Amino acid sequence: MFRAFAHRLPERFLAVYRGDSIFYHIAAVVLTYVLVVSGFDWYFFEVTRSPYFYPLTMAAGIGGFFVPVLVPIGMYLLGEIQKSASLVTRAVLCAQAVVIAWVVSSFYKALTGRIEPEFLTQTSFVDGSRDFNFGILEHGIFWGWPSSHTAVACALAAALIVCYRHNKVVKALAFLLAVIVAAGAAVGFHWFSDVVAGVIIGTLVGVIVARSK
Prior knowledge:
Largest sheet: none
Low-confidence stretches: none
Shape: globular
Strand content: under 5%
Order of helices and strands: HHHHHHHHH
Oligomer: single chain
Helix content: 55-70%
């Protein structure tokens, strides 16, 4: 399994930064700057703090962590049982997309050190949406910019959509996963711009990896 997973992994990782792909990273940075400086991040935070969103946030936190891990593993095991080379290949592509999205988003978090919004609170009087600690591991890689939950979920969703472009059910479920994780992260443990950047980066990774088969 590891050998299959490692196949062309470095090449696919580098492709995320090659050619026109770099413009998507720039777009994520520019949009973040606009959302932060304009005050929209803080505005979105203020209007979306509600206990009614807690279940969505929890679903995003749990689903965004476990689903991207379990789905590729399940696909791979099923492919081995059924002796389906195509399913094994798709499983590997999805797994690589998830790992690359996590590595890329964690790398950016390590450099930007963005302070997360107050979690599970209905109000706050301190605008922390502009707080970054640029450097190396100034605020770890768990919180911050971009949202790794969103990036990983969108990478898996994009890879599934590309791999199963003719399967409406799979595409609908993949899109639903991305929406739930992104929405839950935005109204909970991330700023809106963190999620926007996560969507851009994750989708980019998923599409590039899935199309490279």
